[in-house]
């Protein structure tokens, strides 16, 4: 009953003890209370009750009763970090139990083997237990054993076997009343989805598990912490912060465990730091430190102190006391063998550098730099960051560039273990400091060419390879799934003070296998192994085309003008001022999308002139007369570049990176690709351009009304030469890979496009917000456009602002007229703008659309 109705089980056990039962029944009652405390309460109380249950079972002279209690006690001892004692309890339990009871003991020992990372032993014990449990028709324990076996298979990367066992276990759970076990199974599947890189499915399953726990009234705070982990990994730190804060409020309302509250506060502090809210991070971390200290949980307290110091530094604080605090935390973390120790030493060195304490900084950075030689990837990257800061303090630009190169190489390898493009994009945040250090060093010592190379090194890296598709390489998928599972469990074990040697050994083995597989995958992925080559770029540009790459150093825009065989650098304005002006422009375009706002046109045009001064500066006069490619940083992706006076009448295209533009230009159109026209529901004009285009392209596939359903649309888009989609676009700033286009049966999202074998060679998205992107990580962009570029799309026309549906129709018809004449998307869009009526509504509509890529 303890996993069917935990509250009722606890009440009955206590009532039974109040009735002064015989030793046998008292043993059962104490065991139930011990299980409840172990899983929902205080582990120390659990051990007290379980030892009492063991002693009473011995007094009752029941070998099976004693064996069963010994198994429960063994699990609790291992969770308390007393592995030797726990395994000894299992040895006695296996020896004392017989038949059915012995099978239950073996199942629980298998669970402990899994906790310790000893998978072969776990599978061996489950192999022995399952037939006996099935023969005894013990549905509950058979389902538990299958769930455990699935989890072990997942840790080993055997995804199909895991899914089969999860499915079989769930079928058994459906025949029982074990509601807590059912909820736990759903939560386990959510964790499995997360380890496989499927964040949406993970979140859905965790939500379902929460609903099940809520019906039981059992605590869900560990689930909340897990979901915060998923949200932060997906780049959704604000949502993670909200999740943690809501859980804390709920826990306070029921007078719940202070241990869980401290852990939730730590999760909230980490989320607040990632969300760029250091003051909230300080408040949450400070309270977590006080709670952990009161609970005498030194390991947790030290980690909370690290978050607190980092948040104070992020808030602009710097003092000798902060250096000393960071150094003390680093020393204590090192004594624990915690992977975060180098991060603390790096923080101490960084604060010391800010104070000008070069000797102290060198001492702390030297300690942090040791981690560059071994350990997990992010620890090695931390070490290279420390080494780069040491070189900068010593005045060695060459040393800075070498350390940055080595650190970003390590992070590249780590990113490739992440299957989802959003997770890979988010991981680049870890390398932002290294990339910035290298850019500053190259500006000082290497000139414009080297600055261009380093600007490209860490820009739009997600677009350099297609997103991982599990069927393409099942062995890599299995390896990555196992790696993520093991790495997560190792960290959880460290946080709980449990042994991690076996887990770390397994993690290192999987890292080696994954690295080998990812090196092969890079070779097979289109452009995946390319390093940016300035010479190749200049050769492609020739004498007529100019590529303008905007780099940002210390808040100021640096313009790298490429063309005519050279790279020149110009200094423009402040990025913050440009961002503010771009927001004003977006607001103006939104107003101009409605009739009657003509008076706003001069204001928007004036803002365009100011944007040109801030973003191009003196480079605007050096653009020549030919086509221009603009490569902006992620934070400027919403600038309507066609509004800038020097770009207004030009053939103009935009690209997330120079490397992406080169790859797009090398993409060949499909030899037998067709034209696909899609018309979604709810458009003000009904997608009026689609019928006329259908008449123009006699052989085009037209999907509208009930035929414009997501499966059919994806089927037709795959490998198309040209796709025109007239459908309402929705941009999701909170979760950019759920940005969508509305189809007849619901939204088609970025995740759907990533399933295509080859996206259309050219694609035109004719409605609002289709070109809006989220800037995440170091300089990554996520959204509809960037999902298409690595999948075979060489050119996209899309819109970055709300537009007037009626005004879009003539623009689209003129655009297709230019394509019929053999023009590129950028050329056709330039001509289409000039063909529009000269009123404010149509002008604003033309400015809102951009051509991306090189087709």
UniProtKB/TrEMBL annotation:
Q: Which SUPFAM superfamilies match?
A: TPR-like (SSF48452)
Give start and end of each CHAT domain. Answer: 606-849
* SMART domains recorded: TPR
The cross-references to PANTHER family, in alphabetical order and at most eight, read: HTH-TYPE TRANSCRIPTIONAL REGULATOR RV0890C-RELATED (PTHR47691:SF3), REGULATOR-RELATED (PTHR47691)
* Entry protein name: CHAT domain-containing tetratricopeptide repeat protein
Q: Which organism is it from?
A: Streptomyces violaceus (Streptomyces venezuelae)
């Amino acid at each position: 009953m303890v996993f069917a109705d935990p509250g009722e089980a606890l009440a009955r056990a206590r009532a039974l003890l109040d009735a002064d039962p015989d030793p046998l029944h008292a043993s059962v009652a104490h065991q139930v209370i011990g299980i409840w405390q172990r899983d929902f309460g205080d582990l120390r109380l659990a051990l007290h009750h379980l030892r009492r249950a063991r002693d009473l079972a011995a007094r009752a002279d029941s070998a099976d009763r004693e064996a069963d209690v010994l198994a429960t006690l063994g699990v609790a001892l291992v969770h308390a970090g007393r592995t030797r004692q726990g395994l000894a309890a299992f040895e006695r339990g296996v020896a004392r139990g017989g038949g059915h009871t012995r099978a239950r003991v073996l199942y629980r020992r298998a669970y402990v083997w899994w906790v310790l990372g000893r998978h072969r032993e776990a599978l061996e014990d489950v192999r022995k237990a399952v037939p006996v449990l099935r023969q005894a028709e013990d549905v509950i324990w058979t389902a538990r054993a299958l769930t455990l076996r699935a989890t072990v298979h997942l840790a080993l990367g055997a995804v199909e076997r895991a899914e089969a066992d999860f499915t079989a276990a769930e079928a058994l759970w459906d025949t029982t009343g074990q509601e807590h076990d059912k909820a736990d199974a759903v939560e386990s599947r959510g964790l499995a989805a997360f380890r496989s890189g499927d964040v949406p499915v993970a979140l859905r399953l965790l939500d379902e598990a929460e609903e099940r726990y809520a019906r039981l009234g059992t605590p869900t705070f560990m689930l909340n912490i897990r979901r915060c982990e998923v949200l932060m990994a997906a780049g959704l730190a604000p949502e993670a912060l909200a999740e943690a804060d809501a859980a804390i409020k709920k826990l306070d309302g029921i007078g719940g465990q202070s241990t869980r509250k401290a852990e939730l506060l730590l999760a909230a502090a980490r989320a607040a730091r990632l969300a760029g809210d250091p003051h909230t991070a300080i408040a949450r971390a400070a309270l977590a430190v006080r709670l952990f200290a009161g609970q005498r949980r030194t390991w947790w307290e030290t980690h909370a102190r690290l978050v607190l110091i980092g948040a104070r530094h992020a808030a602009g604080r710097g003092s000798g006391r902060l250096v000393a605090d960071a150094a003390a935390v680093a020393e204590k973390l090192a004594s624990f063998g915690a992977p975060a120790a180098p991060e603390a030493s790096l923080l101490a060195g960084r604060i010391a550098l800010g104070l000008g304490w070069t000797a102290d900084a060198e001492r702390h950075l030297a300690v942090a730099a040791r981690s560059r030689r071994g350990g997990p990837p992010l620890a090695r990257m931390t070490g290279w960051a420390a080494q780069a800061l040491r070189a900068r303090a010593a005045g060695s630009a060459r040393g800075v560039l070498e350390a940055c190169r080595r650190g970003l190489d390590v992070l590249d390898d780590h990113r490739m273990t992440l299957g989802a493009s959003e997770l890979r994009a988010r991981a680049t945040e870890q390398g932002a400091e290294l990339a910035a250090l290298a850019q500053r060093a190259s500006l000082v010592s290497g000139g414009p060419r080297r600055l261009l190379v380093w600007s490209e090194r860490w820009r739009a890296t997600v677009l350099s390879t297609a997103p991982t598709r599990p069927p393409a390489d099942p062995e890599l998928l299995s390896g990555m799934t196992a790696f993520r599972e093991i790495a997560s469990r190792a960290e959880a074990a460290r946080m709980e003070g449990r042994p991690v040697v076996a887990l770390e050994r397994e993690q290192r083995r999987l890292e080696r296998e994954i690295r080998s597989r990812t090196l092969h995958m890079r070779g097979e992925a289109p452009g995946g192994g390319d390093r940016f080559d300035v010479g190749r770029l200049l050769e492609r540009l020739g004498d007529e085309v100019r590529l303008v790459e905007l780099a940002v150093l210390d808040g100021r825009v640096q313009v790298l003008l490429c063309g005519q065989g050279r790279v020149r650098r110009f200094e423009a304005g402040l990025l913050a001022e440009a961002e503010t002006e771009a927001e004003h422009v977006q607001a103006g375009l939104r107003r101009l999308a409605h009739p009657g706002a003509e008076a706003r046109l001069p204001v928007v045009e004036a803002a365009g002139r100011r944007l040109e001064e801030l973003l191009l500066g003196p480079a605007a006069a050096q653009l020549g007369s030919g086509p221009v490619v603009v490569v902006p940083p992620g934070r400027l992706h919403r600038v309507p570049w066609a509004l800038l006076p020097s770009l207004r009448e030009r053939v103009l295209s935009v690209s997330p990176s120079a490397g992406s533009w080169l790859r797009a230009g090398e993409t060949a159109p499909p030899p037998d690709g067709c034209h696909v026209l899609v018309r979604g529901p709810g458009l003000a004009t009904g997608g009026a351009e689609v019928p006329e285009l259908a008449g123009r392209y006699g052989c085009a596939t037209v999907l509208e009304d009930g035929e414009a359903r997501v499966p059919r649309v994806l089927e037709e888009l795959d490998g198309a030469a040209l796709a025109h989609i007239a459908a309402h676009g929705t941009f999701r700033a909170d979760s950019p890979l759920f940005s969508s286009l509305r189809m007849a049966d619901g939204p088609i999202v970025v995740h759907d496009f990533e399933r295509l074998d080859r996206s259309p060679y050219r694609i035109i998205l004719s409605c609002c917000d289709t070109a809006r992107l989220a800037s995440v990580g170091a300089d990554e962009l996520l959204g509809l456009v960037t999902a298409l570029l690595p999948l075979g799309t060489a050119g996209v026309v899309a819109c970055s602002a709300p537009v007037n549906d009626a005004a879009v129709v003539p623009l689209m018809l003129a655009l297709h007229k230019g394509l019929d004449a053999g023009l590129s998307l950028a050329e056709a869009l330039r001509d289409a703008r000039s063909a529009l009526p000269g009123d404010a509504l149509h002008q604003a509509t033309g400015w809102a659309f951009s051509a991306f890529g090189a087709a």
